[in-house]
Design the sequence.
């Protein structure tokens, strides 16, 4: 058991932060999603710990966790019912450091723009692109996580990039005109 | 405006092209302004997504890990076991072979036993002088003796 927990802790420390970031970007536009991504990441790890396949290597465990997390996120998004996280909001307010408010505002706006642009993509394109750009998975690995063919991954990533490219230009020209 | 090679540019950025193909796309890029513009934009998309500022709450990692480790694990018989496909296939073939072997043994054994029984019955079943079998060996001579007596009485009548 001690050995199991040790292995689990190693996998957790390797995968958890990246999984949270993936889920935040993946669910970004949904109401309350910013609070839910950590819950879903934790739930995925909980399932892995309690009843996940035993004896998985770290790499395999990563695929398993991303697949489960994405499915949980899709369920959550379709239900559009996200638990409120009052305490985390309160903690967020109290934990704010003394950065420049203008800088902070700009950063927040930029984050929001990235999330909004990502949300404009179809779910399967968004997932494929995030797994590629943030988690740095190969097409083959992405295909395993999303349970689709490699050629679909290739096309989805290209389409996602092309769509974001043109949307970014639209946003920039709108800001420039403003 | 778009170029037919733009999709290849996307794959080049992801290092998903073979050496020769990558070289060809690189050559094309030096000559095609559409594709080189696309590469710049794709790289920018990459930078923006990678630069997405993400911070977990302080101690969120530790808290989550503590909660998970404190939860109850499923008993081992309810857990799935990850077995690589080749190992699982070998195991199945071995089990199948074992099953066939034991089935063939079962088929062979009754046949051999049947043959042995036939031999012994043939050896023991010497016909009686009267032409009838001696039934007494089946029930230690009790009922057979009665039948024999009745048969003798009826033949005498």
Sequence:
């Amino acid at each position: 058991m001690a050995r199991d927990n040790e292995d689990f802790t190693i996998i957790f420390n390797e995968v958890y932060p990246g999984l949270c970031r993936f889920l935040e970007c993946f669910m970004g536009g949904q109401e309350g999603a910013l609070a839910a991504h950590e819950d879903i990441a934790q739930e995925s790890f909980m399932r892995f710990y309690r009843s996940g396949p035993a004896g998985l290597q770290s790499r395999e465990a990563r695929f398993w966790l991303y697949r489960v997390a994405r499915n949980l996120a899709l369920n959550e998004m379709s239900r559009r019912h996200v638990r409120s996280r009052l305490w985390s909001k309160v903690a967020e307010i109290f934990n704010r450091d003394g950065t420049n408010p203008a800088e902070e505002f700009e950063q927040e706006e930029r984050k929001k723009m990235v999330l909004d642009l990502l949300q404009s993509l179809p779910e399967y394109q968004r997932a494929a692109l995030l797994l590629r750009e943030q988690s740095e998975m190969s097409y083959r690995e992405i295909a395993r996580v999303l349970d689709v063919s490699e050629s679909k991954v290739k096309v989805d990533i290209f389409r996602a990039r092309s769509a974001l490219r043109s949307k970014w230009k639209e946003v920039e020209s709108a800001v420039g005109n403003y | 405006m778009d170029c037919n090679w733009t999709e290849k540019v996307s794959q080049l950025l992801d290092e998903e092209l073979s050496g020769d193909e990558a070289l060809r796309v690189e050559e094309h890029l030096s000559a095609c302004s559409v594709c080189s513009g696309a590469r710049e934009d794709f790289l920018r998309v990459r930078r923006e997504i990678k630069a997405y500022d993400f911070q977990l709450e302080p101690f969120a990692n530790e808290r989550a890990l503590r909660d998970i480790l404190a939860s109850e694990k499923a008993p081992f018989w309810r857990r799935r076991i990850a077995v690589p496909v080749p190992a699982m296939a070998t195991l199945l073939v071995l089990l199948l072979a074992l099953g066939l072997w034991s089935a063939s043994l079962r088929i062979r054994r009754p046949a051999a036993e049947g043959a042995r029984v036939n031999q012994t019955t043939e050896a023991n079943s010497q016909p009686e002088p009267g032409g009838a079998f001696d039934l007494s060996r089946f029930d230690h001579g009790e009922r057979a003796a009665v039948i024999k007596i009745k048969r003798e009485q009826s033949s005498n009548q």
Summary: DSSP finds eight helices and no strands in chain A. Chain A touches chain B through 51 residues (CB under 8 Å). The radius of gyration of chain A is 18 Å.
